[in-house]
Amino acid sequence: AVVSTQSTGGRGSVKSLCLSTKNKAKTKVYAIVFNTLQNYRTLKIIAEEAQLESTALVYVHLYELLYRGGLKTGGPLKVKLMKMLPVLKELKEKHNKSTTFKRLPLYVRINTLLAEDPTRVIKQLQTQFPDSKFTGDPHINFLLKFPPTTNFSKCRLYRNGQIIIQDKASCMSATALAPPRDAHVIDACSAPGNKTLHVGALLENTGSVFAVERDSKRFNKLKNNIKKHGAKNITPVCEDFLKTLPSDPKYSKVTHILVDPSCSGSGMVTENLVNDFKSKNVKRVSELAALQKSLLTHALAFPQVQRVVYSTCSVYNEENECVVKEMLDEHGGEWKLARVIPSWKRRGDTGVFPEAEMCVRCSPEDETNGFFLACFVRKEKEKDKDFLAGVKLQSIFSVRHLAMRYHVKQHYKYPYKYVKLY
């Protein structure tokens, strides 16, 4: 209940608050909070019709009682709820189907840094999850979609780093950045590192990726993540990206930068559920937008950079289209937007500015978390006329996929068409 209250007060994301609690059973705390939020709309109606107070403590107790079969805690609230149990059960049956939040699919990306043969990985997953009807994603290479209840905790492929649990929207940043082999890349806000690893995989362990992270604790997690997943082309850098010097010789060959900064997290499913409790924290969003503009401005200042991707897991225009519009107003003489992932239908809010149609938006309606993405290209250096951005990306089951700027290279000798998925 404390975590739920703090999250609705804008003190952090649900996950970060749960993992920072002093309670030893952090995972269980997160599960209870997450599931309470998932069923929040039903619990709210039940509380209102039963004339109970609409507080986080009441919602947690109702979830434990009605969805987990009992209450382990005591006190006057438990006594009151137990007396009302028959009525509460009737209300649950009445409203549950129409108000329960639909869970998103679980996305798994095949980590080609370690998994040299994706076909073999797919066959192993079929063997381990014979009843799981997983499919390949049509927009992101090497991404698989599983039912939300799939448990990978004991999966050997997950434990040894050959597959990575990563939401589809999160995979779009590296896909849009599309660095060619041997490119030098900066991930400006790298931890925990899933997007960084995706960039490293697209480079096929060639080139160089500078994974910049200013927080020491998150930096340690980043290093462990890089080591576990077999990235040999990623160099972790514990530094504030705003303090990196574009003139530093080690960044002299950087042509691609990914900026995925701190944001409100309002697009994450758990945060969307939290938003049912609260109104937008305007002051916090304004402060975040100022930071985001600073980071993006700094990225555009690197002399050799040709392509900069900006992404957030926010649904607020202030952190998305408004930031992009301001950057174009200030740097439009030198930079323009590229229309990335053209087969994706949901685009930016053209009500903010017409060119927002070049941007990408994701929503739970698309079976992803809420997400925003924009790709800046330097006018005088983007000689291929947005060739990479305009190429329709192949699905994971294509034998060939885009690997370099002007030619397509066959990656694996095992054609995916011989692998049947269920």
Mean pLDDT: 84
Query: C-alpha Rg, in Å?
Result: 23 Å
Distance between the termini: 40 Å
Order of helices and strands: HHHHHHHEHEEHEHEHEHEEHHEHEEEHEE
Shape: globular
Strand % is: 5-15%
Structural class: alpha/beta
Helix content percent band: 25-40%
Low-confidence stretches: 1-11, 384-422
Q: How many runs of DSSP E, i.e. beta strands?
A: 14
Q: What about the largest sheet?
A: 8 strands, mixed
| Number of helices, where a helix is a run of at least 4 consecutive DSSP H or I residues | 16
Written overview of the protein:
- β13 and β14 form a beta hairpin.
- The strands form three sheets. Strands 5, 6, 7, 8, 9, 10, 11 and 12 form an eight-stranded mixed β-sheet that branches. A four-stranded antiparallel β-sheet has the order 2-3-1-4. A two-stranded antiparallel ribbon has the order 13-14.
- It is built from 16 helices and 14 strands.
- The chain is globular, with a radius of gyration of 23 Å.
- The protein starts with a helix and ends in a 12-residue tail after the last strand.
- 38% of the residues lie in helices and 15% in strands.
- α2 runs antiparallel to α3 (26-38), α4 crosses α5 (56-67) and α4 (40-49) packs across α7 (85-99).
- With 422 residues, the chain is an alpha/beta fold.
- The protein has helices at 2-8, 14-20, 26-38, 40-49, 56-67, 76-83, 85-99, 118-128, 156-159, 168-177, 194-202, 216-228, 269-274, 282-300, 321-331, 387-390, and strands at 106-110, 135-136, 143-146, 163-165, 184-187, 208-213, 234-238, 254-259, 307-312, 335-338, 360-362, 371-378, 400-402, 408-410.
